[in-house]
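Quick one - inputs below.
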Amino acid sequence: MSALAVVALAALGGVGAVARHLTVFEVAERSGGRFPLGTLAVNLAGSLVVGVLLGAGVTGATLTLLAGGLLGSYTTFSAWMADSDGLAREHRPQAAVVNIFVSLFAGLATIILGRALGGLF
Amino acid sequence: MSASPANSTPRSADPLALPAQVRRGGAELWLAIAFGGALGTLARFGLAEALPASGADWHWATLIANVIGAAALGVILVRLPNPASGPSRLRAFLATGICGGLTTFSTMQRELLSMIDGGHGALALSYAAVSIVAGLVAVLVAVRLAARGEGER
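Output:
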């Protein structure tokens, strides 16, 4: 990987993280926060866009930078797990299980949907 | 966000008690998050370079990045609660930045999709299951150990 690609990757990772912070904040603000919808929102939105990139035939360095750098950072696994643990420790095990399975399967559904949408371009 | 990382430990301040402006943060908080996100992303790519895998393979790099990031986040959430005055820049740098940038949901989904496309449904199922179980165990153990260490201080 060239030096320029490393710099671009770092920059896109930084942008993705700030965008995630702001999205989670806005979603929590609107949803009232009983359920960790902010993390779910970034994860589904990010998976959808990765799907669109794949469907649109984006490959190579562009795909690495956007899907791996920007959207890889925009989406998060750690908060998904910590949110689920948080729900369980609030004595809401059903909500924790829902958070785990809905995220997993809706994520798969959105990346497949995104790929179909991307194929239309 | 009662279930968010920001409030998943008893010592955390209730984030909703603060004005939206404070919780959203400003340039300084975002810079800390961007810096952490850049470092986390580079670390994730470093792992991917060290442990390369093609489309339908088992992706150790993503799995390891995700599990380490989940464990680290568990420790940070317990040890660095947000002060009542607003979000902590150090916590934002470490948790939202580094852990968020290091771990990824979309890449995991892309890998699962490649496995399914390749006809390796059982591999996809076990990859998802191992990722989730290892991630949850990592958070649980990290939170418990960090809370125990906290009590001893």
